[in-house]
Design a protein that fits this description.
- The structure is a single chain.
- This protein has a domain at 25-55.
- Helices cover 41% and strands 0% of the residues.
- The chain has helices at residues 4-23, 27-36, 43-51.
- The protein is flat, with a radius of gyration of 29 Å.
Length: 96
């Protein structure tokens, strides 16, 4: 039986090779490859997506119509050391 380290090394190597191969493909090629592999996506799912595209399957990127406003965070004053705290510090009791 292979050790955990050996298995992890193989998995990392495989995913690295797969990552390099996927970088060479366009988004449409990756989609087609996924749809053509029944172990990844059953054929009936691929047919459903082809017939009824849903918003999650469409890639839409549009510029924002309004410029983004800066966020103003409230100013929080530092704690007052003269007020009693919720969790007062514990004092050490020394026994004679």
């Amino acid at each position: 039986m292979a050790s955990v380290n050996t298995l992890l090394t193989r998995i990392v190597g495989f995913t690295g090779v797969l990552d390099q191969e996927l970088k060479k493909l366009t988004a449409q090629q990756v989609t087609n490859m996924i749809r053509s592999k029944p172990e990844i996506m059953p054929p009936e799912w691929a047919q459903d997506l082809a017939r009824n595209p849903i918003p999650e399957t469409k890639l839409n990127a549009q510029p924002m119509q309004h410029p983004q406003q800066p966020v103003q965070f409230p100013v929080i004053p530092p704690p007052n050391p003269f007020l009693p705290s919720v969790n007062p510090p514990q004092t050490q009791i020394s026994e004679p």
